[in-house]
Amino acid sequence: MASSLGTTERAHSGRRSERFALGFVLTVAPGALWIILFLLAPSILVIAMAFLSNGDYGSPHLPMTLDAFRRVLGFSVLGWSNGNLKTLWRSLVQSATAAVATILVAYPLAFFIVSRRSYLRPLLLLMVILPSWTNQVIRTYAWMELLAPDTSLSHLAQESGLIAPHMGLFPSDFAIFLGLIYNYLPYMVLPLYAAVEKLDWTIVEVGRDLYASGYRLFWHTVFPQTLPGLLAGIILVAIPAFGDFVVPQLLGGNKFLMLGNLIANQFTSTPDWPYGAALALVMLCFTFAGLFVFRRVARRLGRGEGQIL
Amino acid sequence: MNFSRSLRTYLALHSWPVFLFLYAPLAIIVLFSFNRSPVSVQFTGFSTAWYTSLFHNQDILAALGRSLELGIGSASLGTVLGTLLGYGVYRYRAAGLAWLGLLVYLPIIMPSIVFGISEMIFFTYVHQFTGFLSAGLLTMGVAHVTFQIPYVALVVYSRLVGLDRHLFDAAQDLYANPWKIFFHLVLPVTRPAVVAGFLLAFTLSFDDFVISFFTSGPDSMTLPLYIYGAVAKKGVSPEINAVASLMIGMVLVAAITNLLVSRSKEQAQRPSRPWLRSH
């Protein structure tokens, strides 16, 4: 009697898990397979390609070699050059300065929005996000227009001797810097605003009651509470800025390369797929390493901000 | 939170120039789209000539048509796959699939330039070996669906998380089969999220440049590709200013509609909560 009950129960749960599996396959499988087939497989193909030799027209072939990686480090038939290391360095510096600059701009801005009346806050936030709804090419092009040789900004720079007469402010590292801040500022403001909005002000009051003031009050009561938002903002700004392609392409040109347009060059003007694939692998490594480190730090802070990525 | 007067002044002095920084570049584009002079970056007089020539430019009109076709087509498929995925991850997450989360996030995390060249290489080989999928709107669409799926899935998923889990238990207790649950419970309650997901997917596709750049073919130039090509070739030009101004205008219209819709929703809700009508 007891055993027969057991078997019906098992049969029942068996049917349930069967149905469970069927439902899982029908809902999750199409999307997951699509991503596996059209993104995971292609990126594995790219990684494999980095180890192949380059043919005459940029098409890769066997045998396997580490040639592409040697070229990534700057070795070529002409000897060693520091060009690639400079490009990598520029990408790292630009993404770090973009993160720092957007923090400096966004931090007070987040407090400003929160300090306004509650019905104004969504409007102000929308005003911050709105420019990022326009196309990235257009947003970057706007800076070409502002920094061109004949504009007042350029005249100012020419007269103060920062640039030669009749020159524009782009292409330059400075133009890339401005373009990156302009493109990624909203992604710093949003998580910071979320953190500031749910700030627990009673902690600040407690600090004030204990006669803390000014900087100490800020560093010990306000800043720790905004740290998760800050980290989320750094992830959202520094990582895409590091891999950006449009901004350095339009505002830096071939003189001020970042990793993004160095990779693109290997697939457009003078094709060299294995070399481009090896550069892409370098970018992936830095991206995932950055993500890993920042997520680790965010987790250690013990708040749920890891949900963002 | 009561900020002191001096702090409020500081915050305002810091923040209003930031808004200037955000809007001045776009305003300059719109201003110069009405500039009479075709070469100079100085404003020499008012003219709408660039807009007239725009509407006679067959290349731009064709590019706009392709952008819409690509956006609607890819967003439709992306919404179906993304909605199913979002629901599946929510419903069957007990299975504890960390790899699935990672897979869903992959298109978001992947730097777009690496995404783009991966697709390009992949499609080149697929075409070489099978003859299918030559570079064009179809390959662009496949790539766009790939980055749309996770965004739609996330929107639908977060809507489902906000629901009472007991709804599903209740449906099962009433012997609703999975199909019935999906069509009579999941779809109706997630409809706002599915619509929002579709709009998001369309916008992502319409705005995408980098991935489109690497997956497009000779006859599939979309609007962002056209603008990029013209900018790379000619630099600053009044015609591009006019196209860009129109696209900025579209964003403004979308934002104002968004504000009005959310406001009218608030007003529609008000009578049921008269005690909230204080201001």
From TrEMBL, chain A:
A GO term from the CC aspect: plasma membrane
Cross-referenced SUPFAM superfamilies: MetI-like
Leader sequence segment: none
Annotated transmembrane regions: 20-52, 92-114, 123-144, 174-196, 217-242, 275-294
Biological process according to GO: transmembrane transport
Key word Acetylation present: no
Pfam name, any one: BPD_transp_1
Domain ABC transmembrane type-1: 88-294
Keywords from the UniProt entry: Cell membrane, Membrane, Transmembrane, Transmembrane helix, Transport
UniProt membrane topology term: Multi-pass membrane protein
InterPro entries per record: MetI-like (IPR000515), MetI-like_sf (IPR035906)
Xref: PROSITE patterns: ABC_TM1
Subcellular location per the Swiss-Prot or TrEMBL entry: Cell membrane
Record Gene3D superfamilies: MetI-like (1.10.3720.10)
Keyword Cell membrane: yes
Superkingdom to which the source organism belongs: Bacteria
Family: Belongs to the binding-protein-dependent transport system permease family. CysTW subfamily.
Protein name in the entry: ABC transporter permease
Species in which this protein is naturally found: Acidithiobacillus sulfuriphilus
Source lineage: Bacteria, Pseudomonadati, Pseudomonadota, Acidithiobacillia, Acidithiobacillales
Automatic annotation (TrEMBL), chain B:
Leader sequence residues: none
SUPFAM superfamilies: MetI-like
Residues covered by the ABC transmembrane type-1 domain: 64-261
GO biological process: transmembrane transport
Classification via Pfam families: BPD_transp_1 (PF00528)
Entry keyword set: Cell membrane, Membrane, Transmembrane, Transmembrane helix, Transport
Main location (coarse class): membrane
The keyword Membrane belongs to this UniProt entry's keyword annotation: yes
Recorded topology in the membrane: Multi-pass membrane protein
Membrane spanning residue stretches: 12-34, 70-90, 102-126, 132-160, 181-206, 242-261
Gene Ontology CC entries for this record: plasma membrane
Protein's cellular compartments: Cell membrane
Family as reported in the entry's similarity comment: Belongs to the binding-protein-dependent transport system permease family. CysTW subfamily.
PANTHER family: PUTRESCINE TRANSPORT SYSTEM PERMEASE PROTEIN POTI (PTHR43848)
Name recorded for this polypeptide: ABC transporter permease
